[in-house]
């Protein structure tokens, strides 16, 4: 993994989130780079999906664990943990979206940020 001194903090957090998703076999992992978009609300969106609410929750827990272990930072805000259909972990400059498969297709977050640079990652 790239050291935080080499890259900026939001890039590092996004990479930690991706690692947490890979650990729990998240599907179709992508990172949207929003830094060059004027109206963006964050530097990065990190997105994946899973087939069950149980796996969605496990991925969210893994992401939180990876980020806390590396930089002792909890999300500023969390949404959706109760139902596990779309969990959002807000780290201010990095927003992590973990969807149940059908919800990802329905909301199409990637399509809303069509100008973003999108990088895909393999599941572990």
Automatic annotation (TrEMBL):
It is found in: Cytoplasm. GO terms for biological process: cytosolic ribosome assembly; negative regulation of ribosome biogenesis; negative regulation of translation. Keywords: Cytoplasm, Repressor, Translation regulation. GO terms for molecular function: ribosomal large subunit binding. The keyword Mitochondrion does not apply. Signal peptide: none annotated. One of its GO terms (cellular component) is cytoplasm. It holds the Pfam family RsfS. Its main location: cytoplasm. Interacts with ribosomal protein uL14 (rplN). Belongs to the Iojap/RsfS family. Functions as a ribosomal silencing factor. Interacts with ribosomal protein uL14 (rplN), blocking formation of intersubunit bridge B8. Prevents association of the 30S and 50S ribosomal subunits and the formation of functional ribosomes, thus repressing translation. This is Ribosomal silencing factor RsfS.
């Amino acid at each position: 993994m790239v050291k935080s001194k080499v890259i900026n903090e939001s890039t590092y957090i996004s990479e930690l989130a991706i690692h947490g998703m890979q650990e729990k076999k998240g599907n179709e992992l992508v990172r949207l780079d929003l830094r060059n978009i004027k109206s963006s609300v964050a530097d990065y969106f990190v997105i994946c999906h899973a087939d069950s609410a149980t796996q969605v929750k496990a991925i969210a827990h893994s992401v939180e664990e990876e980020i806390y272990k590396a930089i002792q930072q909890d999300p500023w805000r969390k949404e959706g943990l109760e139902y596990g259909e779309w969990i959002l972990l807000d780290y201010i400059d990095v927003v992590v979206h973990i969807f149940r498969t059908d919800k990802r297709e329905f909301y199409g977050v990637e399509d809303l940020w069509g100008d973003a640079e999108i990088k895909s990652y393999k599941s572990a």
